[in-house]
Amino acid sequence: MDFALLPAVNAALVSADTLIIPMTTSGLTNTGTALDTASHGQLSATIKAANFEAKVGQTLLVYQLNNVSCPVIMVVGAGDSKELTGRSLQKLCASACKALNNKSQTIYSFLSELSVTDRNSSQIVTDIVRATLEASYRFEQFKSKKTDATAKTMTLVVGQELANNSGSHALQWGEALATGLNFARDLGNLPPNVCHPSYLADQAAALAKGQRKLSVEVLGEKDMEKLGMGAFLAVSKGSEQEGKLIVMNYTGGKKGDKPVVLVGKGITFDTGGISIKPAAAMDEMKFDMCGAASVFGVMKGILAAKLPLNVVCVVAAAENMPSGKATRPSDIVTTMSGQTVEILNTDAEGRLVLCDALTYVKKYDPAIVIDIATLTGACVVALGKVVSGLFSPSDSLANDLLQAGQQSNDRVWRMPVLDDYQE
Questions:
Q1: Which candidate in 90, 158, 225, 234 could, as Cys together with 162 as Cys, close a disulfide (CB 3.0–4.6 Å)?
Q2: Cβ-count burial of 74 within 10 angstroms (0-12 exposed, 13-18 middle, 19+ buried)?
Q3: Which CATH number fits domain 193-375: 3.30.70.20, 3.40.50.150, 3.40.630.10, 3.30.200.20?
Q4: Quick check: is 277 catalytic?
């Protein structure tokens, strides 16, 4: 979907396939009121007849209003105007996108008329774009019959100031965020016979193509042997697919500024190794690389937004497979840091690949390091699927991440990091 910005227009005269207007529990906003006036009360009468309650995300399609050029008006519920948050805004944008007719090619959205308690006008534009693109996402790469996706253009009707200045940046930022998010989803949805460590290395090379500020280095198992990455190799050696440590170095900031380092767990398929998992739901173990996918998504978004930062993204990519070469429970290995580790359960592979990756990134003298992992079962037991677990000894960094989670609607909950747990 493509986006454009336009200053205030007479909605009744707009020539488009669909107009999207918001409605709170208090009633229609300015555009809705204008359309109701133009149609001599037909819009409000239709809304009343449909018992439309304006709950957040509720939608109603109204057809062929008198004196209105556009044939379809979509009314989207926004709930109580005093309680509308960015999270609610993203929810109602997603609902509107899903309710769109496939034949709607030109869409005018007036959702930016809403007042959101924790968003300014630019952030509202960003949220509308991001949420719409996220809701439009489809993964059909392997379907023999794909959905006939008609190209759509959504014009966001905004205030004059946004149309002239900051709105364009807000729109591009929303597109960059969605580009990164949907790229991460693509990688996560790929089957493990396609998305293996070498495939991820190829994706990193593809990202760097034509990008002057992004360089990529891929370490194979021989390179890791020389560095003493015994923990990482204890996981990867059981598979026919060679493990890879993928390093993407983006230098968009000032020379000499310490980089932000992101490390992603990239177990492209996790059988558990010799400590093999039950067969039930083992297909979901392809998602054990979604920490790596999120790191790839961040880099994709950084490139799209051209951020002025120095960022190093490291992906620890391996398969955890049982074989004659696989690590056995009770094996002892030496990590890159020189510590010895006894492996009692080969299904605890994430900490093994990550510990060597985290030791490796010390060479960059980072400002901060954030590692990301998925399928951490104990976290799901503790927190459910609503928030992610956040572990950090740094109060300032933890608070920044908590705020970022609220802003992005990707919330986290800080967990305790106490010395007692080391006993």
A1: 158
A2: buried
A3: 3.40.630.10
A4: yes
